[in-house]
Amino acid sequence: MKFLSRYLNNESGLKIFGLLAAATVFCLILVNIRMAENGNSRYNYWFLIRNISLAWIPFLLAFVTYHLALPRKISLTILPINIFFWLIFFPNALYLLTDFQHLRLYSDSPSLWFDVILVTWFAWTGVLLGIVSLYWMQEIVSREFNRNAGWFFVVCGNLLGSTGIYLGRFVRVNSWDFLIHPVGIMKDLIVPQPGEHPVEYITLYTLFFTFMYITFYVFGNLLQKQTTQK
Amino acid sequence: MLKKLNVIMIQHKYKAGIFILLTAASVVCFILVLARIAYSNTYGYLGLVWNLFLAWIPFVLAYLAYILSWRRLLMVLVIPTFAILWLIFFPNAPYILTDLQHLGQASTNASLWSSANVPLWYDVILLVWFSWTGMLLGIVSLNLMQEIIRREFGRWFGWLFVFSVAGLSSAGIYVGRFIRLNSWDMLQDPTHTASNLWDWLSDPSLRSFGFIGLYTLFFIFVYLTIYAFGHLQQEQTGKS
Fold first, then answer.
1. Which among B22, B221, B229 has CB closest to A132?
2. Is the pTM of this model over 0.95?
3. Domain-wise residue ranges, chain B
């Protein structure tokens, strides 16, 4: 017990894990309330559960990769594989933001205010999962190389993440499609369908995630200064 | 002189950094709305700029209070006034979250928003930019106020303050969204506002409980997670 409390006190990573797990459970409760109140199949929000489950994959991958203490030789072979899989699944965390569009698709919903808070809960949980996992990956990269490489990884991760969102939203592919037929996906990206704007879309989301991430990062440093001041 | 300025900048680089980041984000929000106006020839979402401006008020108040609070005399005289003003204006920051409902309303009053030729994904990212910027403005300003309280009264009061503000601001969002009152109504016409509020408080709906409860929990969750994330970084720098 004493060991546990000491561990909890020192390990903010576990606190974040607990908070995000609690938030996810809460999201599930909200969806169930929503569906029990309006069982009408026209307003279906069950897909959010699938999306949030997918958002946990990169988080768990980053958590394990970061906390794994393996012999140097083994970790060097495992690391690239983990980073690769992490990059493929990372877009799922950010993808939850785009689920706001269902507010319009279900715009005749009888309880719009509840739908707004429901999707808001899901979207923030998803993006926070993404941001924390990105942080762990950044730490791994800066540990292996240096700080600049870590930040380079953040920007690349966000760029690839936004590209992934675009592919998921418009081309309707999943993370694992990338493993099965990567060439077809690339073609879709280079030759967009009429009426789609991949460049604007990806730019706006990349900017957004990078802004979010840096703001969280700077805010964290601010907190750090406060604790040292007292 | 320049050297002194440089020292101040380095001392406060994170506070200045947050300020610059949020200013930049607000500029991006503004550009996104302007681009939408230019593209669609309608004035949809122009109201968001006003809402974002209102979200800046508690941030600036908290910033000023934080700077002033280092002087003992000012602390006693000025801070209570600032704190009340801050509390009245604070709900404007998380209020932008509820503007996401405009996505759902767009089709019902299509003439007003004319969503016909603006792609849906653009409206989504536009609202996301606004709502996150507003929410972050709220979180940072709440943290500055929490610091002042912590310094004066201790850690527990600081957290008590955070939880109370989360509840009060959610009630404020509800009042703004459904009873349609503004922050300044409270200052301008207190009796009318009080009677309006009384009508609601004497007969609260199930909806108001659900709404306030859900937003309170949400705010606390986001605040705690960002707080824990800050400490995660701290442990990191401690290790290396």
1. B229
2. no
3. 2-239
